[in-house]
Design a protein that fits this description.
Blueprint (H helix, E strand, L loop, with lengths): L10 H4 L1 H39 L13 H7 L7 E7 L5 H13 L4 E8 L4 H9 L7 E6 L38 E5 L3 E3 L3 H5 L9 E3 L9 H6 L15 H4 L14 E5 H6 L2 H15 L12 H7 L5 E2 L19 H6 L2 E3 L14 H5 L20
Parallel strand pairs: 1-2, 1-4, 2-3, 6-8
Antiparallel strand pairs: 4-7, 5-9, 6-7
Helix pairs in contact: 10-11
Length: about 375
């Protein structure tokens, strides 16, 4: 008491209940802010995951009103009775790919779905070739391949530059191409199918096998022709056995090789065995050590397949891969043998859309003129 007046209380003690109420209010606000923050993070994560699930890793299929028909066709790929075929379509050889497609649909009543793989610059050309010709009724999906996945895996090689085209390595990356099927057929673009593609698709793969190929030691009727053009049929012709890395594989150099231009793939086994990763491993090894090259028989795409699939593939009926038609402009197969073949492959430098080449009539009957006029056949001048 001072002069009869009571001492004023400490301001901090005037309203203790008010402080408690303020603290409680702050805690409520903090909880609300935390909840809002968590919701925002969840929404951001959901948006990111959705974008990631719809963004192709190696491919991109652009959807626009112009190809709305194609987009609607893609849902048909999920049907169980469909025969899915993967084929590449480069700008330089577009007419070849379309001839292959035409031969397939003309020799089967099966429902075929085509995954047409190309580079970004050729997407419009690919779509126009299909939509402006007799192929406009096919079911298909255009898939863009990103060549950047090959950086550090493929060396420049001047002996056969065509074998270094990025699309030549699409066969290594099948599980990453947004394919909806558990089994697919892969075909090179220098092929004509004369049989029913459904028979090839229905081959029974052995347990644990991720693919089926035709071995180079089958089909005795072709042996004389193969020898006459100097083609290799064993691993010795594809791998450099002077290199220790090759010796360490323990593969007999006289073992039969195979050509990976035609095969049936089990996508589940392929993923389970991490085939793509193994193929990349040997590509990178060759990049460092030169254990094979395109100067050898099969180029740079065949040796990794031979290594990874050695003794681990199902053998196709050899009539489903009659090959080497492109290795000589002079050596011909007997006509009756060609009639029996289910599939013809012009592997080698002498392609049937160029000249000279052999058995042109069997390829040209399936050729569809390019509506853009870019792809044309090379033929001798009739007046000469």
């Amino acid at each position: 008491m001072v002069d009869g007046w009571a001492e004023a209380p400490d301001p901090a003690l005037r309203c203790p209940w008010k402080q408690i109420e303020n603290m409680a209010l702050l805690r409520k606000i903090n909880r609300i802010l935390v909840v809002l923050l968590v919701l925002m993070v969840c929404l951001l994560l959901r948006s990111t995951l959705l974008r990631a699930s719809t963004r192709p890793r190696l491919s991109e299929n652009r959807k626009s009103p112009k190809n709305a028909g194609q987009v609607s066709q893609e849902h048909a790929a999920e049907a169980h009775d469909v025969v899915p075929v993967v084929i590449c379509a480069s700008e330089e050889r577009m007419g070849a790919s379309m001839a292959t497609i035409n031969s397939i649909i003309s020799n089967t009543d099966a429902s075929v779905f085509f995954y047409v793989v190309t580079l970004r610059d050729a997407v419009k050309l690919t779509r126009r070739y299909i939509e402006k010709t007799k192929l406009k009724g096919i079911r298909y999906k255009i898939v863009e391949f990103n060549p950047m996945v090959l950086v550090g895996k493929v060396k420049p090689d001047s002996s056969r530059p065509d074998l270094l085209h990025p699309l030549n390595f699409v066969r290594f990356y099948l599980p990453l191409l947004d394919i909806l099927h558990s089994r697919v057929i892969y075909l090179d673009d220098d092929i004509i199918v004369q049989g029913d593609i459904r028979d090839l698709f229905n081959i029974k793969l052995k347990p644990g096998h991720a693919a089926a190929f035709a071995t180079d030691c089958d089909l005795p009727s072709t042996h004389e022709t193969v020898r006459s053009i100097g083609m290799q049929t064993t691993y010795m012709g594809f791998l450099d056995y002077r290199k220790q890395e090759v010796k360490d594989l323990g593969i007999n150099p006289s073992d039969c090789s195979f050509n990976p231009g035609v095969f049936v793939a089990d996508m589940n086994e392929w993923k389970k065995q991490k085939v793509t990763k193994e193929l990349e491993k040997w590509m990178e090894e060759n990049f460092r050590q030169n254990i094979y090259s395109s100067a050898m028989a099969g180029g740079v795409a065949t040796p990794p397949m031979l290594i990874v699939f050695h003794d681990k593939y199902t053998i196709l009926d050899p009539l489903w891969h009659v090959r080497h038609l492109g290795w000589s402009p002079d050596v011909h197969y007997p006509e009756n043998f060609l009639q029996e073949a289910h599939l013809l492959h012009w592997n080698g430098p002498f392609k049937p859309w160029n000249y000279p080449a052999v058995h042109l009539d069997r390829w040209e009957k399936w050729f569809i003129p390019d509506p853009s006029g870019r792809f044309s056949l090379e033929r001798p001048d009739d007046d000469s």
